[in-house]
Design brief:
The protein is of the alpha+beta class. 29% of the residues lie in helices and 21% in strands. The chain starts with a strand and ends with a helix.
Length: 108
């Protein structure tokens, strides 16, 4: 299940988002609108929800959250953007990394 967040996640939100992988949740963050979508099988699933809600592709960055360890990663296929200077699955730009982490910390 994809969960869309504008405010802090509840335990139920995290439970719903973890249906696909159990202890791991895929996350996509809109670094400009400061919203997050999580869950689903692919990052593209959450990305699609954000795009339908008015996000712009260039503002969306993906990663994941391990429920048990509380660790966040910044790797996703949707992060591959050679035209935008990100030729890796990892978020390379320090500014986007900081914004991504801040939103994940604020909303999760």
């Amino acid at each position: 299940m994809i969960v869309y967040l504008e405010t802090k996640a509840t335990r139920q939100d995290i439970k719903n988002a973890s249906e696909e992988y159990g202890d791991y949740i895929k996350i996509v963050v809109d670094v400009e609108r400061k919203v997050l979508a999580m869950g689903g099988r692919l990052h593209a699933d959450a990305e699609e929800v954000l795009l339908k809600k008015g996000s712009r592709q260039r503002d969306l960055w993906g990663g994941g959250y391990d429920i048990n360890t509380k660790k966040v990663d910044m790797q996703a296929m949707i992060n591959l953007r050679p035209g935008q200077g990100n030729d890796s699955m990892e978020i390379l730009d320090p500014d986007f990394r900081t914004k991504f982490m801040k939103l994940v910390e604020d909303l999760l």
